[in-house]
Amino acid sequence: MFQAAGAGPGCGGGESELRRSRRLTEHRRHSTLLPGVFAEEQERLRELAMNAREEQRGQEKENPAGFDTELLFNVYTQRGDQNFALFNYVLEQSRIIEEMTKDLKQVLY
Fold first, then answer.
1. Tens-digit pLDDT profile for residues 77-91
2. Interatomic CA distance for residues 66 and 30, integer angstroms
3. Among 11, 16, 37, 65, which residue has the least CB neighbours within 10 Å?
4. This prediction's pTM
């Protein structure tokens, strides 16, 4: 929108933007500090919190829904075996139908 006097291109406006950005960053950092806790302790607490969040994300990636993966695997394999057995049954029934159809054609013709 509007630019302050002397903040145009080539007038050092980028430098003042950089200072302003640094001030805002420093203000945010100071405003998030807990009262009565030193800055070093704050940094350590932040690191611990970030590590805990990363660890939690890692666990969520391993098991996002929080269910038993062994149970899931067992049910999956059981259903796969059932599906294979049903598939074989259908194939056998189809073979029997084809044989009966051939036999009927021979009898009728």
1. 999 999 999 999 999
2. 38
3. 65
4. 0.38
